[in-house]
Amino acid sequence: MEHSHVHLAWLGAGLFALAALFCVPLGFEANGLLASADDPVAIADRALDRAFDRDTAIHETEAALEANDADLAKSFVDLADDRGTPVPPELKKRVDTAVDDANSASATAGSFARGFITGEPEDMAGLAGTTVGDLFVFGDIRDAVREGSRYVAGQEYDQLVLGLACLGIAITAGTYATVGAGAPARVGLSAVKAARKAGRIGTRMADWIGRSLRDVVDWAALKRAGASLSEPAVAVRTAREAVKVEKADGLVRLVSDVGTVQAKAGTQAALDGLKLADGPKEMGRIAKLAEKKGSKTRAILKILGRSAILLTIGTFSLVSWVFAALMALWGFVSSTKAAVERATRRHLVRQKERRAERYAMMAASRA
Fold first, then answer.
1. Which of 6, 31, 36, 43 allows an S-S link to 342, with CB 3.0 to 4.6 Å?
2. Final residue before a domain boundary, out of 193, 218, 247
3. Model pLDDT for residues 307-332, shown as the tens digit of each residue
4. Does any domain span residue 286?
5. Which pTM was predicted?
6. In this structure, is residue 240 part of a structural domain?
7. Which residues 6+ apart lie within 8 Å of 180 measured at CB?
8. What range does the domain containing 226 cover?
C-alpha cells in the first residue's frame, strides 16, 4: 500500500512538472505584461516583437508610397532602422524622393495659404497654415465669428469648432502672457480643431470634448451676444468672457498632449492619435509613446492600432496565468516533497524490519 502511495506521489510530481513547463513561461510573460500596463512604450515594444519584421516594413512602406503618404513611408523606414530590419536602399531612396517632393515649395505654398485663410486644410501644408492663423488669433476669430453667427441665427453649426475657437482665444491670450508657456496647448488645439473639420476625431473622443466644452463655455452668454458676434472685436471679447478657464484643465491637458505628439512625431501622427484614442487618457499614452519613439510613432500606430498603447489581453486572463504558474510550481514542490517523505519513510520501515529479522534469527540460533 505504501509502495503505491510513493508511486502516486511521483506521478503527481511529474504531472505538475509538465504543467509547470507549460504555465511558468506564460506566467512570467503575463507578469511582465501586468508590470508594463501603464507603460505604452513597453507595450508597443512587446507588440512589435510579434507584429513587425522586414517583410512587413517593406510592404507597409510601399503601400504608403502608393497612397502618396510620404510621411508614413518615412515613419516605417525609421522604425525598420530602429529595430535592426532596414529596408532595401532603393526603397529608401524612393522614400527620400517622395518626402522632398511633398515638402517642396511649389507643393506647399498654395495649400498653406488656403489653410491660413479658410481654416479648412486639405493636407499637412494646409494644416500648418491653419495653425499659424490660430497662433495669431486670426483663425480662432474667423471660426468663432462663422460658427457663432450660425449658432445665434439658429442655423446648423459645429458646436465643437465654436467651443474650441473660444477656448483657443483664451489659451492664446494665456500663451502670450506667459511668454510661450502654453505653446504646446495652443498648437495642439489647432490640430484638434482641424481634425474635427476633417472628420478625423474618433466618436468617443468627440463626445468627451463635447461634454467638456458644455462645462467650459457659457453658451447662454454667446447666445445673448446675438448678432454682434459677427463683429470680430466683439466676438473676441465675448469668447474670452464666455470661457470658464478654471474648468478647462481637462481640455488643456488633452490639447497639450496633442501638441506634444505633433512636436515629437509630426502633425499626421497627432491626427492619427486623435482618430485612435477614445479619450484624454489614451491621448496621454500616445503622447508618452511619441516622446520616446518620435518619427516612428505613425508607423507604430498604423501597425498596432490600439494595442500600441493598451494591453490586448484582459487583466483577469493575465492574473489567471500568473496564478496557474504559481499553482503548478506549488503542486510540483508539494508532490515531490510528499514522494520523498514517503520514500524515506518506506526505506526506514524496511531497515527496521530487516534489523528485527536479524535479531530474531540471532535469538533462534542461540536457543
1. 6
2. 247
3. 888 765 545 455 565 556 667 666 66
4. no
5. 0.72
6. yes
7. none
8. 105-247
